[in-house]
């Protein structure tokens, strides 16, 4: 950072020129964190990308991992299986979260409700999976209750199949989706709705013509974040699902390649494919966001 | 506040609350099952266990070496909180106070580890850590856990720092404070609520962070949540109640910190600050 020339003869020093561009000692405070993330986030990603083109079998072509993935149904079907779990659960979570958020925003004391809903996020997927193993089992409280009230004659099979993972994704995904939705909904100036109500708009009209256009971008982001979480489902797919069958999700394939076959090259390739599918969906959703209104929604005066 | 008094609106409200109630009921029943089972003697085909006991806790404690696991967990969590606090707050300060070319790129660098799920970047990260020999060690687990927590602290702290008037810092500078003194005597007291809130959330997140720890931990660097996963995964080897007792211990360690955190943060205001309804 120290300039070797003399300031009076050669104009401003390097330090002064950098400071004029915003690079001074304070800006440098960003460096430790940025370097750390370049080292442990960007570098591993780049390394994994390169590694995925260097198959374990050195005679194979550079695309061997990818061609193996898309040739083997046991591998490429994981994409469809993961989507088949993550898209419906994300949509259900979002469609449930919106009306509930609209109700909860009117509550004076939201704290208790939000505290309860943060529980499953805080406890994490492993604990929810362990709890559901007891709760959804053939002798669990859910099946007992359903049989007692006469809805079913014999226990429903909810474990070690698609539905176990489905339920766990609702349980851990809904609070996340809800809290994001709620924070978008409460960020909109209530004066806008009051104006619409004054002009005689009913509840549905206020939602459809005032809130929905303003909230669409927020909902799109909420969908993306919730979807990406659901798409990377791992512990519950192993513990509650059928990890060799219908809930063999893509993260299981990546994990098995890395830690059971010790083929880090193949594992990196699967991780890259996983990242790419997530990215593709997110880009598609965010691109369609451009079709909606974008502008101030939180009132002119903050 | 607008009140809809039609029958349709009331039915709709009832339906919405019914869904919320159903969700919470199932959530509590699920947690209740774990707790009940951990205190039960034998529980087969009845609503409640045949008798009550606390012996599963002592057996879980010795079977799963919970003492060691808890010590490792607290060491990992403590270090992650400390390091992400130091790295995160300094970086957030720079980003809140300075405009510089490439700032958007730096912000993207801090946003990506939060948007990309841990299992996606965890596998390449674990590969790199295995090649450098860090994986399986205590420090490997700490390093992996820092990847999402440092950006988290930065993103929470930036708005917090922005709301502090820079004139206060300028005044301290005029009176001769250097950067270190400025930070200790002026910024730290002002930022303390924000730092505390973000670090508590980091703490809760790190206790529950399964994927990254799972991918890089070795036998001696497991945290509680990973030990719990292995116990459930190998179910049948140990008594179910023993695993449930471990799950209750895990729940207790997270929930204590969650309760503390909730005193400082409102989780409903992650993205925007709520516009309060005008009083009537």
From TrEMBL, chain A:
It is found in: Cell membrane. The chain crosses the membrane at residues 25-46, 83-102, 114-137, 162-185, 210-231, 269-292. InterPro entries: MetI-like (IPR000515), MetI-like_sf (IPR035906). Keywords: Cell membrane, Membrane, Transmembrane, Transmembrane helix, Transport. Residues 79-285 form the ABC transmembrane type-1 domain. One of its GO terms (cellular component) is plasma membrane. It is a multi-pass membrane protein. Its main location: membrane. The keyword Transmembrane helix applies. CDD domains: TM_PBP2. Gene3D superfamilies: MetI-like (1.10.3720.10). One of its GO terms (biological process) is transmembrane transport. SUPFAM superfamilies: MetI-like (SSF161098). Belongs to the binding-protein-dependent transport system permease family. CysTW subfamily. This is Sugar ABC transporter permease.
TrEMBL record, chain B:
Residues 70-261 form the ABC transmembrane type-1 domain. The chain crosses the membrane at residues 12-35, 69-96, 108-130, 136-161, 182-208, 214-235, 247-265. Its main location: membrane. It is found in: Cell inner membrane; Cell membrane. Pfam families: BPD_transp_1. It comes from the Bacteria. It is a multi-pass membrane protein. One of its GO terms (cellular component) is plasma membrane. This is ABC transporter permease subunit. One of its GO terms (biological process) is transmembrane transport. Keywords: Cell inner membrane, Cell membrane, Membrane, Transmembrane, Transmembrane helix, Transport. InterPro entries: MetI-like, MetI-like_sf. It comes from Microvirga brassicacearum. Belongs to the binding-protein-dependent transport system permease family. PANTHER family: INNER MEMBRANE ABC TRANSPORTER PERMEASE PROTEIN YDCV. The keyword Transport applies.
């Amino acid at each position: 950072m120290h300039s070797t020339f003399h300031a009076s003869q050669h104009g401003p020093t390097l330090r002064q020129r950098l400071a004029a561009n915003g690079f001074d000692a304070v800006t440098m405070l960003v460096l430790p964190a940025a370097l750390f993330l370049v080292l442990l986030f960007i570098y591993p990603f780049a390394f994994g990308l390169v590694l995925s083109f260097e198959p374990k079998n050195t005679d194979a072509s550079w695309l061997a991992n990818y061609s193996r993935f898309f040739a083997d149904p046991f591998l490429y079907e994981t994409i469809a299986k993961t989507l088949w779990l993550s898209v419906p659960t994300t949509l259900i979570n979002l469609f449930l979260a919106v009306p509930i958020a609209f109700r909860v925003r009117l509550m004076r004391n939201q704290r208790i409700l939000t505290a309860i809903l943060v529980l499953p996020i805080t406890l994490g997927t492993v604990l929810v999976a362990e709890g559901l193993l007891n709760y959804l089992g053939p002798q669990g409280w859910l099946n007992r209750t359903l049989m007692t009230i006469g809805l079913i004659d014999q226990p429903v099979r909810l474990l070690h199949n698609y539905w176990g993972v489905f339920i766990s994704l609702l349980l851990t995904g809904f609070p996340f989706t809800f809290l994001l939705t709620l924070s978008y909904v409460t960020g909109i100036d209530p004066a806008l709705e009051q104006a619409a109500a004054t002009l005689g708009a009913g509840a549905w009209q206020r939602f459809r013509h005032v809130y929905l256009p303003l909230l669409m971008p927020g909902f799109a982001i909420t969908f993306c974040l919730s979807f990406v979480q659901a798409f990377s489902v791992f512990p519950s797919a192993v513990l509650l699902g059928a990890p060799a069958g219908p809930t063999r999700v893509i993260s299981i394939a990546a994990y098995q390649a890395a830690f059971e076959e010790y083929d880090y090259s193949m594992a990196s390739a699967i991780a890259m494919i996983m990242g790419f599918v997530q990215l593709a969906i997110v880009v598609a959703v965010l691109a369609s966001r451009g079709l909606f209104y974008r502008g101030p929604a939180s009132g002119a005066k903050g | 506040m607008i009140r809809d008094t039609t029958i349709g609106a009331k039915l709709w409200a009832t339906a919405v609350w019914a869904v919320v109630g159903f969700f919470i009921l199932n959530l509590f029943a699920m947690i209740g099952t774990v707790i009940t089972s951990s205190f039960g003697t034998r529980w087969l085909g009845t609503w409640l266990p045949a008798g009550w006991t606390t012996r599963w806790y002592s057996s879980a404690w010795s079977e799963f070496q919970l003492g060691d696991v808890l010590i490792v967990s607290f060491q990992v969590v403590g270090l992650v909180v400390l390091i992400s606090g130091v790295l995160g707050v300094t970086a957030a300060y720079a980003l809140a106070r300075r405009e510089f070319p490439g700032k958007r790129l730096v912000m993207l660098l801090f946003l990506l580890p939060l948007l990309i799920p841990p299992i996606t970047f965890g596998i390449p990260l674990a590969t790199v850590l295995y090649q450098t020999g860090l994986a399986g060690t205590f420090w490997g687990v700490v390093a992996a856990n820092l990847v999402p927590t440092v950006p988290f602290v930065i993103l929470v702290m930036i708005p917090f720092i922005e709301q502090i008037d820079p004139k206060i810092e300028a005044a301290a500078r005029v009176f001769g404070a250097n950067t270190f003194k400025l930070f200790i005597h002026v910024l730290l007291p002002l930022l303390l609520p924000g730092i505390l809130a973000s670090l508590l959330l980091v703490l809760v997140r790190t206790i529950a962070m399964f994927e990254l720890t799972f991918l890089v931990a070795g036998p001696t660097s497991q945290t509680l949540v990973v030990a719990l996963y292995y116990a459930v995964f190998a179910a049948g080897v140990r008594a179910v109640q023993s695993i449930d007792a471990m799950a209750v211990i895990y729940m207790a360690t997270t929930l204590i910190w969650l309760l503390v955190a909730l005193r400082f943060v409102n989780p409903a205001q992650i993205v925007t600050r709520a516009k309060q309804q005008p009083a009537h």
